[in-house]
Design a protein that fits this description.
266 residues
């Protein structure tokens, strides 16, 4: 049996997910759409709300008795609601792509399964481990780039090329660890980074291409897009981001599903 992760087939199937599952995606994503749209609108009409560092604000409140005003409190509440709805939407997407449709359809609109906490925990842990792994690469890269400042920082294409090369080993490691995320999203616990690494053996570079490299390229493309001071343009851009996010979650879910099924059949 061929255990190689099919790159083209996986990508094409994930590409179809926004249309194929649009009804259920709207259901699980509605809280995120509402909170995100409200934040975007408020930040446009009330710029003072944008950019508030609520973590520093909280520290100053407790240690310096700094008073909060209504706008700051509202900003903190909205940021928290946005983050919670984002995690709920991500976990909901994994459930749509990996579980039977009747299980997902029976879920309420505002569904907190309890797996969201574990998902956040794994996400933070993977991020921390990846950061620690990247430190040696950073010590090598920074002096090299500073010694050739004009080449790297005045030529955008050279800078992006170097960043891609720098991120390849980091994305490789993070991609192979990331399989614990869909596992925790659908309630399968007791897995570890070691399990994820072993599950992705012989498919590490394929997984990196699907989960790491393609999203990285998409992020670069988005960063090159022009910006306009238009709420309509910003809303359209955020909608496009949501579609891309669904596809990226689909890539991870499909990769996980393929590798788990092949592990079971071995």
């Amino acid at each position: 049996m061929n255990n190689n992760l099919p790159i083209t087939a996986t990508f094409l199937e994930a590409l179809s997910f926004p249309y194929k599952h649009y009804r259920m995606l709207l259901k699980v994503g509605l809280p995120l759409i509402i909170t995100g749209g409200l934040l975007l609108t408020l930040n446009y009409f009330f710029p003072n709300i944008a950019g508030i560092d609520w973590f520093s604000l909280t520290l100053s409140h407790f240690f310096s008795n700094t008073e909060w005003d209504a706008i700051q409190v509202f900003s903190i509440v909205m940021d928290i609601l946005f983050l919670l709805s984002l995690v709920m939407a991500i976990v909901g997407c994994h459930r749509i792509f990996l579980l039977e449709s009747n299980i997902v359809e029976e879920s309420n609109l505002f569904t907190w399964t309890g797996n969201e906490i574990k998902y956040i925990g794994w996400l933070i842990f993977i991020g921390l481990c990846t950061f620690l792994v990247s430190i040696p690469f950073t010590f090598i890269l920074i002096p090299f780039m500073l010694s050739s400042y004009e080449i790297f920082f005045e030529n955008q294409f050279v800078f992006f090329a170097v960043m891609i090369l720098f991120n390849i080993p980091i994305y490789y490691i993070a991609s192979r660890w990331s399989l614990v995320l869909p596992s925790s999203a659908i309630g399968i616990h007791g897995k570890s980074l070691t399990w994820s690494w072993e599950l992705s053996s012989n498919n590490g570079w394929r997984l990196t291409l699907l989960i790491g490299f393609l999203p990285f390229i998409i992020d670069i493309i988005f960063s090159l897009l022009p910006t306009y001071d238009s709420i309509l343009f910003n809303l359209l851009q955020e909608a496009l981001w949501l579609i891309v996010g669904v596809i990226e979650i689909g890539l991870l879910s499909l990769s996980y599903n393929f590798l788990v099924n092949n592990e079971s059949s071995d």
